[in-house]
Amino acid sequence: MRFGFVDRILENTPLLVMEGREVLDDNLAKADMTRQDLWAKLREANIFDLDVVRAVIVERSGEVSVLYDDGVQRTMSDEPLSDVRR
Predict the structure, then answer these.
(1) What is the structure's pLDDT at 65?
(2) pLDDT tens, position by position, 39-83
(3) Going by C-beta distance under 8 Å and a sequence separation of 6 or more, which residues neighbour residue 23?
(4) What is the DSSP letter of 85?
(5) How far apart are CA 22 and CA 10, in angstroms?
(6) Integer distance in angstroms from the first to the last C-alpha of the chain?
(7) What is the Cα gyration radius of the chain?
(8) Quick check: pTM over 0.70?
(9) N or C end: fewer C-beta atoms under 10 angstroms in the chain?
(10) Alpha-carbon span 11 to 16, nearest angstrom
(11) What does each C-alpha distance from 55 to 1, 3, 41, 58, 86 come to in angstroms?
(12) Where are the beta strands (DSSP E) in the chain?
């Protein structure tokens, strides 16, 4: 097992790996992900432009959530990110 995976399981908290256009490389390493893994997840989410990304989170289960702006003017509540480690 790799340490990033073990740390994430032990801490059992979602981990922010991208905020807006900014890739959080230290958190990517903690999640045992590469930038190539991140790009693949963005492609899976049909992200064509990094400007629409609001956040990418590695969930407790190991799944990756991509939160993005779908073009509708709205603000993002703080609650969905309240338990996410930055």
Answers:
(1) 97
(2) 999 999 999 999 999 999 999 999 999 999 877 767 778 888 888
(3) 17, 35, 38
(4) B
(5) 26
(6) 23
(7) 13
(8) yes
(9) N
(10) 13
(11) 27, 23, 12, 10, 11
(12) 15-19, 22-23, 53-58, 64-68
